[in-house]
Design brief:
4 helices; 9 strands; globular; alpha+beta; two-stranded antiparallel ribbon
């Protein structure tokens, strides 16, 4: 699938900071598509705490979320997977969902995420849900 959108270099720089700086703990970058430029950009400055993430997301517009999540494995090891979350609420316009879907694979590739999750309800995005989805079974 061909990507419709390109990714803003400032956003890529922020993703790299998130990847390398584990002191952020559980942190996320909320991204949107600037429809006038067909450019994936960071929605707001800085990182978002995962516990506040659901409150940051619009109810009727898709978003991409890149997050670094502190995952403690059963054997005590700690890892920080880079996770791509595709947020597509059920009330979003079809055209907007198609725009996000057409750029998703390209954005995942350049963001170099290791895990992918899909969610349609912002209320699900909490620590328990993430741990359940990311811990190996």
């Amino acid at each position: 699938m061909t990507s419709v959108c390109t990714v803003d270099q400032d956003l890529l720089n922020q993703i790299e900071v998130l990847r390398r700086d584990n002191s952020q703990g559980n942190a996320a970058i909320v991204c949107k598509i600037d429809q006038s430029k067909f450019l994936v950009v960071q929605e707001s400055d800085g990182f978002v705490n995962i516990e506040e993430l659901g409150d940051e997301l619009p109810e009727s517009s898709p978003r991409y979320i890149i997050l670094s999540f502190k995952l403690t494995h059963d054997d005590g090891r700690v890892s920080y997977p880079m996770v791509f979350v595709n947020y597509s609420p059920s009330g979003a316009k079809t055209e907007l969902c198609m725009l996000y879907a057409s750029s998703r694979t390209q954005f995942q590739r350049v963001a170099q995420t290791t895990k992918t999750l899909d969610v349609d309800d912002a209320e699900l995005l909490n620590l328990e849900w993430l741990q359940d989805k990311l811990k190996p079974k």
